[in-house]
Amino acid sequence: MKSILHKISKLLSLTCAFACAASVTTQASAAEQEQPNVVVFLIDDMGWKDLACFGAELYETPNIDKLCGDGVRFSQAYTSAAICSPARASLLSGLNPLKLGMWNHTHHMAPREDFLPQKLKTAGYQNWHVGKWHAGSPKDKTMPKDIGFDVNVGGWTSWGPKSYFWPYGVKPGSDVPSGNTGVPGLTKGGQQGEFLTDRLTTEAVSLIANRKADQPFYLNMWYYSVHNKKEAKKELIEKYKKKIADKGTKAAYRHSELVGKNLITTEINAVYAAMIESLDDSVGRIVAQLKKDGSYDNTLFIFYSDNGPTTNDVPCAPLNGGKNTNYEGGIRVPAFAAWPSKIKAGSEYSNPVYICDIYSTVLEAAGQPLPSPSEKDSTSWFPIFEGNKLKPRQLCWYFPRSQTVYGGVASAAIYDENSQMKYIMSLVDNNDELYNIGEDLAETNNIIQQNPEVAENLRKNLHSFLKTNLPGSRAPASAQQKILEQKLGVSIKYNTSKK
């Protein structure tokens, strides 16, 4: 009898063990399935109001608007730099670009072990980069495949395509761009008339359709559009020329004292409008593929622009400045996040978010440990997704080069979320500026004389940031070096081995 009971007990124990093991396996599989796919749309040089869901009147963006409506729109989204390469490096590293020694489009990232795709690979993701790179270089060993991407389609050191039409500034058969323009790897399979935005999207859709079913994916969908040189499909250009004529839109300008000429403030660029429509169509194609295979609800979409627009040919009203300036037009960009199974549709967040935040947000979505505030300049958006606010913070920018074509002046800036005050330190002269962004979005009323204590507090914090992070960075022009040392009261040791 005891022998029989012992056998029954042993059998029950084994059954329980198998059941528990099965339960653990099931839970583990569920946990793995809960990791969302991640798609980061990074647009090049898109202005804050260049989407219909952000107030554009000429540009048509129904697919992007729909995706934005399925998530949370960020009305005060900031990039980390008013120019491309540093901002791109921030997204990948979670750091203010000055901490990477970068502030200009000629600068490249140095190798690290904690870039976002490296972290995601550890978490079991398949990682793809499609489109513009312009963040690292082969020499520095910071091209997409060097830092954790399994696939690189079209990514190079180029800051823009020589042409948006095939073969994209590359000689057919060579696939190697010359200089700083051209898109590699796309001459094969292309044909005359093929448009770059469409081709990149076709490549991305193919990656999604043919992916490994048992792994989540991270798609870095970094379009070259709408960077110069501006080109678009002829039929779309004609469509917008007619629309502009039918609306009776007239050119309006603002005068820039710096460049001594007028800069456009109205939406009358038909080529630019056509480029945006092609982008919208491409976003719609990627979303459609994910809906088709049932992955849409568990995909985290993030949409961001790397910096503001080129204000010599497109508007940025009502904001002041544009690309290459630390005014709102250069650093405030259109952005939103959508994750249908997680984020309430139709949400709005009016407090600041930061391009560096993408790093921690994606890591948390992937179930990975978050870096501490001392390690990164990155805050996860999960509180926002749950209907809460992020802790207030101060953000800093640094661009020590005047870019006259866009009306930009060399400067550094700091924004304080609690007071909504923004202090801009000129690196040209002693005419510093202070604006209440909450009341003066266009930055037309410099209130520095009326608020000396506020200006002084922000100045001290900005000086502290610069003194800490300028050493080891690339040196600006000698005139800006002199002004910086005069204003900071210290001598800066720059990295003279890199330009």
From TrEMBL:
<keyword id="KW-0732">Signal</keyword>
<feature type="signal peptide">
    <location>
        <begin position="1"/>
        <end position="30"/>
    </location>
</feature>
<protein>
    <submittedName>
        <fullName>Sulfatase</fullName>
    </submittedName>
</protein>
<feature type="domain" description="Sulfatase N-terminal">
    <location>
        <begin position="36"/>
        <end position="367"/>
    </location>
</feature>
<dbReference type="InterPro" id="IPR017850">
    <property type="entry name" value="Alkaline_phosphatase_core_sf"/>
</dbReference>
<dbReference type="InterPro" id="IPR050738">
    <property type="entry name" value="Sulfatase"/>
</dbReference>
<dbReference type="GO" id="GO:0046872">
    <property type="term" value="F:metal ion binding"/>
</dbReference>
<dbReference type="Pfam" id="PF00884">
    <property type="entry name" value="Sulfatase"/>
</dbReference>
<keyword id="KW-0378">Hydrolase</keyword>
<keyword id="KW-0479">Metal-binding</keyword>
<dbReference type="InterPro" id="IPR000917">
    <property type="entry name" value="Sulfatase_N"/>
</dbReference>
<comment type="similarity">
    <text>Belongs to the sulfatase family.</text>
</comment>
<keyword id="KW-0106">Calcium</keyword>
<dbReference type="GO" id="GO:0004065">
    <property type="term" value="F:arylsulfatase activity"/>
</dbReference>
